[in-house]
């Protein structure tokens, strides 16, 4: 894949990403009434780099061509949404799935079903419709939705363990599983206190 081919290929993915980012911003400032805080802590986005695309295709046994990238990769455009609470994640997922012009291509709920290593996150690949002068096409955008605690854990795990060979891997994995549990408990408590505060405020 030449640089020119790469930049040509990613253009509609960038358009799809921008459209979805705008939806998420709207969701963030309209979902709760003004007296409540916004549900999303932050939103990050990226277009997969040329080398990263080629390496992933190679790992999966495909030639590093534009057509293989389009056919086999669903994460060329990626968004990561960091929420405060699990209920915010659920609300956002429900909202995205209810939008009639978005197609759910693939969905993995690692919050209800955490990975054995402790990883928790909600992954959804959405087909976003991009309209041009003479055509309209759907492009996949991978959205990872997680809480602050899940993001902290996943970022650390990615840094010290994910896809790494290391002599003390068993020890590190045990520690990661333990901290995933602790973070989950912390989040449940924080959410409980937040709900209690909102209920008290609504009663007064
Ligand atoms: P990287 O280094 O982040 O780019 P896919 O690869 O998406 O086509 P699959 O199997 O459906 O295939 O992927 P899944 O399980 O939905 O995971 C996709 C992405 O989620 C990964 O991308 C990671 O970013 C993240 N992820 C999944 N499992 C873990 C985990 O155990 N720990 C951490 N820290 N992140 C995880 P990549 O391309 O594998 O990696």
From TrEMBL:
Pathway annotation: Purine metabolism; ppGpp biosynthesis; ppGpp from GTP: step 1/2
Domain of life: Bacteria
Domain RelA/SpoT: 45-168
Pfam family, one: RelA_SpoT
GO BP annotations, alphabetical order: guanosine tetraphosphate metabolic process
PANTHER family, A to Z: GTP PYROPHOSPHOKINASE YJBM
Protein name: (P)ppGpp synthetase
Species name: Candidatus Pullilachnospira stercoravium
